């Protein structure tokens, strides 16, 4: 008789979502269904990211997106997969994607509540696809404001403090699904042998202080002086504060964010000459990751204001961002405020 001893309880993403739903008597299951569908799409994208070198979905399409950035085939594939899954989920009224100029309103379906709308960056860091560097998906879920019928733009132009859930998937040395509904941040690592995301990082908390800073230093001569003063501060030798910090910059926000979330650190993409509002998008990158970092005990600002309090005026609005360990974000803001540097600088 072979006895299989179960050494430890495996909690899958689906099981955890269900447990979390049961913890709230008012939960009706729609959000759970939406989160589970995001997990399913993540498995599909993971499969194709992992074999990107083998299947003809590498390389560029020859098109550019609204930002004039070259679109990689995996971008297109990921965008189609997530939008298809969201449309068929039934709980989602529409989606705004970084890859689409405008939002999409999904046709109503019988028995579906269509209570939610989703903002998504289907494959962030896509310039790294061809060189096998970690990339990611970022998403945020809101309750729609409009009542029934097609969703409207104002459903998507909600401040990040109205998010009901946010998450990211990092396709790296392992693939992880990390999400929050505002109570805690939990990370699930994909086990391809069983085809499940399994709870590996319960209740993630970001250290208040870290020793990593992430910024593209090649823009030194475009940054405000206060930004360069903070970067200089990170490089100075000071045993008491653990400086010099380590410089780590992947060029994939999800990868830089995830490392700093686990180890502690600050990621900054400041305003700069030519980009008075920085590069990163408020709806698709900054709000979801800010919701996650705050729930994990960290902080996210545009240099002056809390990211989650910014009221979006346009779908593809950009914002400078300083995000990560609370004490490090506060230190960066000290430098910015000391020089009266506004969050955005003129060209
Ligand atoms: P830069 C990727 O294109 C991205 O949107 C983020 O994932 C990343 O952090 C940033 O842009 C990198 O931008 O200007 O440093 O190449």
State the CATH superfamily name of the largest domain.
Fructose-1,6-Bisphosphatase, subunit A, domain 1
Q: Helix fraction?
A: 25-40%
What is the alpha-carbon Rg in Å? 20 Å
**How big a fraction of the residues is strand?**
15-25%
Mean pLDDT: 91
The CATH topology of the largest domain comes to: Fructose-1,6-Bisphosphatase, Chain A, domain 1
Ligand inventory reads: 6-O-phosphono-alpha-D-fructofuranose
Low-confidence stretches: 342-347
Broad shape? globular
What is the strand tally? 15
Derived structural class: alpha+beta
The major beta sheet can be summarized as:
8 strands, mixed
N-to-C SSE series?
HHEEHEEEEEEEEEHEHEHEEH
In the CATH hierarchy, the architecture of the largest domain is 2-Layer Sandwich
Task: Please give a structural write-up.
The protein is an alpha+beta fold and 347 residues long. It has 2 domains: 13-201, 2-Layer Sandwich (Fructose-1,6-Bisphosphatase, Chain A, domain 1), CATH 3.30.540.10; 212-343, 3-Layer(aba) Sandwich (D-Maltodextrin-Binding Protein, domain 2). The chain has helices at 13-22, 30-50, 73-89, 225-235, 253-263, 282-295, 326-338, and strands spanning 60-64, 70-72, 92-97, 104-105, 116-124, 135-143, 165-171, 175-180, 185-191, 196-201, 212-214, 246-247, 266-269, 299-301, 321-324. The strands form 3 sheets. Strands 4-3-5-6-7-8-9-10 form an 8-stranded mixed sheet, with helices on both faces. Strands 12-11-13-15-14 form a 5-stranded mixed sheet, with helices on both faces. β11 (212-214), α4 (225-235) and β12 form a beta-alpha-beta unit. α2 (30-50) runs antiparallel to α3 (73-89). Bound molecules: 6-O-phosphono-alpha-D-fructofuranose. Residues 124-125, 127, 216, 251-253, 279-280 line the site of 6-O-phosphono-alpha-D-fructofuranose.
